[in-house]
Amino acid sequence: MTIVLVAFVAATALAQRQRGQMRQAQAVLVARAHEEERAWVASELHDDVLQRVALVRAEIESLWEASEPRSADALEDRLRGINAELVDLAVAVRRIAVRLHPTVVDQVGLVSALQSLADEVERGSDLDVRLTADGDTATVPADTARAAYRIAQESLRNAVKHSGARIATIGVRVTERTLSLSVHDDGRGFDTNVKRVDGLGLASLQERALCVGGKAEVRSRPGAGTTIDATLPLPVR
Ligand SMILES: Nc1ncnc2c1ncn2[C@@H]1O[C@H](COP(=O)(O)OP(=O)(O)OP(=O)(O)O)[C@@H](O)[C@H]1O
Ligand SMILES: [Mg+2]
C-alpha cells in the first residue's frame, strides 16, 4: 500500500513538472514570436518608413534652397513628387499598422482579412494566391479567427520565402464543430523529419492552433509542395 502511494505521489509530481516545463516552453515560443514581430517592425520602420521620410525632407530642402526665379511648372513637378512620396509613406505606415493589429480580422471578418492578406502577398511577390471559403465564417469566435489568420499569414510568408512556388491556395471551411484552414503551395517542399532549430514560424503557428484548442499539421516532402492543415474547434451552438 505504501509503495503504491509513493509511486502515485511520484507520478503526480512528475506529471506536474512536465506540465510546468511544457507551459514554460510555450511561453518561450510566444515570447520569441513577439520578438520576431518587433524586429520586423523595427526593420520596416528603419528601412522603409525612415528612408521615405528622409527622401521627402531632402526634396523639401532642395526646393527651399533652389535659387529664384523658379518656373511654376518646375515647382508644380516638385510638389507632385513630394505628394506622391507622402502617399507611398501613408501606405507603408498603414501596412505596418494593419499587420500589427490583430483586430483587422475582428473588423472586417476572417474571409475579407484573408483576401486582403492574399492581395498583399500577390502585390509583394510572384506568388499567385487563391482563396476559397465555405460555410458561415461570421460565427467563428474572434480568438479562433485571429489564430486562423496568423497561421495563414505565416504559411504564406513561408511559401514566398522558401518554396519558389508560383501558386498558393488558402481554403477555409466552417462546419458546425470546426474551422479547417488549409494553405498549400506547389513549391519545392522540405523534409519535415529534419529538426530545425533556427526557424520560429512553424512552431509558432502550431502554438497558435494549440492556444485555441486545435492543432496544425505541416505536411511536406522535397519536390512535393507544402500544406499546412489547421483544425480549430468551434463552440457547440
Ligand atoms: N512552404 C515552404 N516551402 C519550402 N520550405 C519550407 C516551407 N515552409 C517552411 N519551410 C522550411 O522549413 C523551415 C522552417 O520554417 P519556419 O517558418 O519555422 O522558419 P523560417 O521561415 O526559416 O524562419 P521564421 O519563420 O522564424 O522567420 C524553413 O527554414 C524552410 O527550410
Ligand atoms: Mg517562417
How would you summarize the topology of this molecule?
Blueprint: H1 2-65, H2 72-100, H3 103-108, H4 110-124, E1 128-134, H5 142-163, E2 167-174, E3 178-185, H6 201-211, E4 215-220, E5 226-233
Parallel strand pairs: 1-2
Antiparallel strand pairs: 2-3, 3-5, 4-5
Bound molecules: adenosine-5'-triphosphate and magnesium ion (MG).
What does this structure look like?
This protein is of the alpha+beta class and 237 residues long. The chain folds into 2 domains: 2-99; 107-233, 2-Layer Sandwich (Heat Shock Protein 90), CATH 3.30.565. 62% of the residues lie in helices and 16% in strands. It contains 6 helices and 5 strands, in the order H-H-H-H-E-H-E-E-H-E-E. It has helices spanning 2-65, 72-100, 103-108, 110-124, 142-163, 201-211; strands at 128-134, 167-174, 178-185, 215-220, 226-233. Strands 1-2-3-5-4 form a 5-stranded mixed β-sheet, with helices on one face. Helix 5 (142-163) packs antiparallel against helix 6 (201-211). It starts with a helix and ends with a strand. 20% of the residues are buried. It binds adenosine-5'-triphosphate and magnesium ion (MG). Magnesium ion binds at residues 154, 157-158, 199, 201. The site of adenosine-5'-triphosphate has 17 residues, from helix 5 and helix 6.
